[in-house]
Design a protein that fits this description.
By secondary structure, the chain is mostly beta strands. The chain has one domain. The chain has no helices and four strands. The strands form two sheets. It has a two-stranded antiparallel ribbon with strand order 1-4. It is globular and about 40 Å long.
Length: 49
Amino acid sequence: MNDKKVATNTVAPFTTRWKMTAGKHTIYVKAVDAAGNEVEGKRVGVVVK
């Protein structure tokens, strides 16, 4: 969230929870395989009131 790692999951199910503060945030998912290949999901903007 906002370019800071929230969690690392290495075993399915790949889910996590976190608390967000009020304001605008950007969230996305980054996947890294055992060989070190990386891919990022689309960045999504959210507003928490």
